Amino acid sequence: MSAPLPYEPPPAYGSAQPPPPGYGPSQPPPLGYQGHPYPAYPYPPPRPTNALAIASLVCAFLFAPLGIVLGYLSLSQIRRSGEDGRGLAIAGLVIGYVVTVATIMAVVAGTLLFAWAAKVVRESTDPGGAGIPRHHASAPLYPGHLTPDPRPTMVQAALVTR
């Protein structure tokens, strides 16, 4: 004698059996966007990037003051139109300011260095312009060309007095 099974065994593959009570015939889900079973929510079209923002970033490396001007113009256009490119415009502004300040500092440092070098050469008594200033007016021009001191040394004074 066999015990009853606690569940109904599944029907054999390929056999046609009516669906269980309470369920209608099985229907595949409706196909949505590109054949997927779920409805599609396509992405909104991308907003265009502001052309002045791109130009600002490029000009910040080539001619920094122009990059700064274009950065401010593009930020005002982006606020009005809602285009993308705010990050590009800010990067163009920052890089433009950094390059401009660095260029001004380099020009000032170069000018000061050139002025100092010209002063050293001008004060040098060496005809070749070696740039070594004399520190004392009575120092000899060339140590090998010493002129004798007209005052007698102590040895010469002792010999004369004998």
Describe this protein's structure.
This protein is mainly alpha-helical. The chain has a domain at 51-123. It is built from four helices and no strands. Helix 1 (51-62) packs antiparallel against helix 2, helix 1 (51-62) packs parallel to helix 3 (86-123) and helix 2 packs antiparallel against helix 3. The longest helix is centred in the middle third of the chain and has 38 residues, at 86-123. The model has no long low-confidence stretch (mean pLDDT 77).
Task: Record the SSE blueprint.
Layout: H1 51-62, H2 64-81, H3 86-123, H4 154-161
Helix pairs in contact: 1-2, 1-3, 2-3
In brief:
The protein is mostly helical and 162 residues long.
Poorly predicted regions: none
Average residue-wise pLDDT: 77
Separation of termini? 160 Å
Backbone structural class: mainly alpha
Helix percent reads 40-55%
Total beta-strand segments: 0
DSSP helical segment count: 4
Query: Major sheet, described briefly?
Result: none
Rg for CA atoms: 47 Å
Order of helices and strands: HHHH
Instruction: Please state the overall shape, judged from the principal axes of the Cα atoms.
Output: elongated
Q: What share of the residues does DSSP label as strand, in percent?
A: under 5%
Question: Could you name the key traits of this structure?
Answer:
single chain, 162 residues, mainly alpha
